Q: What sequence folds into this?
């Protein structure tokens, strides 16, 4: 039977396993562990502007030996040397180029990005084979405590993207208008009657807003020429302004809905244009991925049936994900 102490230790281990590397790094840079108290590391931009900013280290105020240290100074100095050496090495390293699907792949469950792994296999005939795969960054960063692998190999993923792209390309070559109409229906953009009603409503509200502006000017003229009293003017202007604000809100909302719908319709045509430019593509490079793909979500693989099954959602530029 586990004791309260063992449960507590297990909870601590679980908590520690979920800490990010950056969190541990920041902890090891905190001088409180060697007994120092550091103040005034941040300040406000001004007495009016309360936004915070980090002050240069020369302006910090440090109180040495303010309390009992948790880590001895020798250990602290060793860790700092390693930290500084690592930072200098990182700063001097040339920034690596993104992999084929780098920054485009995301875990379908936790939303974290998928990072690239390259393994090298040396064969007996002397050839060297490189294998590229991607897996959940959060799962690795938390010591396998949060989420799961969500691993996918690059070649099958590339084949899937090419297959979908070629299917769309063939369909566009056969009947582009039909493909675009089908996409519009899938994206609920095919309701021409609804769009016409929205346009009519925008025009009607614009006419009413112009009328209210004209009425306000006439009321001011009537007050100035003493056709109406000050009290009547104020009452009528309040009523006018109340309606104007209400109509303006309606006008802005409907106009925004109409603009968003028309932008999506235009995006469908942009997507078709991009597909046409890649119509004879039989392989993928990074530039192709940038031109074609917004993001790809990768689910966890299921091998329980004896076959590997894995949900993949491709979000194409301009149109997003198209349900099959």
A:
């Amino acid at each position: 039977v586990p004791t309260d102490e063992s449960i507590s230790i297990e909870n601590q281990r679980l908590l520690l396993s979920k800490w990010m590397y950056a969190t541990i790094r920041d902890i090891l840079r905190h001088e409180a562990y060697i007994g120092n108290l550091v103040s005034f590391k941040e300040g406000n931009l001004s007495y009016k502007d309360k936004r915070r900013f980090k002050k240069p280290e020369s302006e910090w105020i440090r109180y040495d030996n303010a309390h009992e240290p948790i880590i001895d100074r020798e250990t602290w100095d060793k860790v700092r040397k390693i930290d500084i050496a690592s930072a200098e090495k990182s700063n001097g390293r040339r920034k690596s180029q993104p992999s084929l699907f780098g920054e485009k792949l995301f875990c379908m469950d936790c939303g974290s990005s998928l990072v690239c792994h390259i393994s090298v296999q040396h064969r007996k005939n002397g050839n060297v084979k490189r294998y590229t795969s991607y897996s959940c960054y959060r799962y690795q960063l938390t010591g396998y405590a949060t989420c799961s692998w969500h691993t996918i190999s690059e070649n099958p993923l590339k084949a899937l993207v090419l297959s979908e792209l070629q299917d769309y390309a063939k369909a566009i070559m056969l009947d582009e208008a039909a493909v675009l109409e089908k996409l519009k229906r899938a994206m609920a953009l095919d309701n021409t009657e609804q769009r016409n009603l929205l346009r009519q409503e925008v025009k009607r509200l614009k006419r009413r807003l112009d009328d209210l502006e004209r009425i306000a000017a006439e009321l001011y003229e009537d007050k100035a020429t003493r056709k109406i009293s000050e009290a009547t003017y104020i009452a009528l202007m309040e009523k006018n302004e109340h309606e104007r604000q209400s109509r303006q809100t309606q006008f802005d909302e409907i106009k925004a809905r109409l603009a968003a719908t028309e932008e999506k319709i235009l995006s469908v045509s942009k997507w078709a244009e991009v597909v046409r430019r890649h119509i004879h593509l039989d392989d993928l490079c990074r530039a192709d991925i940038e031109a074609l793909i917004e993001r790809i979500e990768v689910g966890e693989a299921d091998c329980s049936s004896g076959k590997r099954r894995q949900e993949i959602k491709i979000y194409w530029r301009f149109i997003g994900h198209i349900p099959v």
Remarks:
- The first helix runs from residue 4 to 17.
- The longest strand covers residues 114-122.
- Residues 1-7 have pLDDT under 50 and may be disordered.
